[in-house]
Amino acid sequence: MPDIFYSALFAVAFPVYKALHTERAYGRTVRHLANAKAYIKTSISARDMFKGIFWNALDSYRGLARFKSVESRIVYENEEIIREAVKHGPVAAISIHQGAFELLHRSLCRYSEHVHLITDSVGNEAFREVLKELRSDPHLTEYHPEETGKLIRDLFKAKGILAMVFDQGKNTKGNSVELFGLKSTLYLRLPQKVNQMGASIVTFRTWTNTKRQIVIRFESVYPPKSDPEKLIADIAKETETWISEHPEQWSWNYHGNFKV
Q1: What is the pTM of this model?
Q2: Closest-CA residue to 95 (of 209, 224, 246)
Q3: Is the pLDDT of residue 46 over 70?
Q4: 34 half-sphere exposure, CB direction, 13 A CA radius
Q5: What is the per-residue DSSP string for the chain?
Q6: pLDDT band with cut points at 50, 70 and 90 for residue 181
């Protein structure tokens, strides 16, 4: 369907969603934005955030379906970071739920024939099957968190790339950090573990700019066996920067934000 259809759909659906989720996702977003407003340069509303999620999700699913209209908008930056890292062994490529983040995992197939994506169950079974099909790629294998042991073995055997987002987690213990002066949790135990086993860590992210380009930028590389505490602190600082630069494109509605 054309974009004008989805614009109309959002305009009609959002007030209904807001009314039904005032005490849940919408209300959480309002509270989280209020608590962090002293640290964010631009003022955004909960509606801005949900609109960002809506359009980024649409771009994600169109991109996963290999729509040329989306693929032609993707711009890659700092590719030398990931290309150099994969030359020296396994890599954990990690990001957050910001922008059209579903495209990040597929993009890693440009740099390795062995991409190991760890995801948790979302939605109902029918939706999960559709999403799994959309994510599929000859070079990408999807793992459930219960398969972490197999993932680690496959990662080091193939010297491939572990792909994951680390700002949300389910039924798993995370790392206590501060974001915007608020206690929060990032789920970095798996990257931390494979880093101590000899994998490097590459941080990367995506956002949609004012030209409607989908930017995928590789940011930093952390060498194998980095100091564990400094590693977590440095990644938390990066996360703050990413959110501050594009607050309207981060998932502020997650129920676990700003909780330890």
Answers
A1: 0.92
A2: 246
A3: yes
A4: 6
A5: --HHHHHHHHHHHHHHHHHHSTTTHHHHHHHHHHHHGGG-SS---HHHHHHHHHHHHHHHHHHHTT-HHHHTTEEEE-HHHHHHHHHTS-EEEEE-SBSSTHHHHHHGGGT-S-EEEE----S-HHHHHHHHHHH-BTTEEEE-GGGHHHHHHHHHHHT-EEEEE-S--SSS--EEEEETTEEEEE--HHHHHHHHTT-EEEEEEEEE-TT--EEEEEEEEE-TT--HHHHHHHHHHHHHHHHHHSGGGB-TT-TTTT--
A6: confident
Tokens of 245: 């630069």
Tokens of 69: 């209209």
60 within 8 A of 208, measured Cβ to Cβ: no
Strands 175-179 and 182-186: antiparallel
Task: Label the pairing between strands 161-165 and 115-118.
Answer: parallel
Tokens 């640290």 found at: 39
Rounded CA separation 28/34 (Å): 10
* Band of residue 45 on the pLDDT scale cut at 50, 70, 90: very high
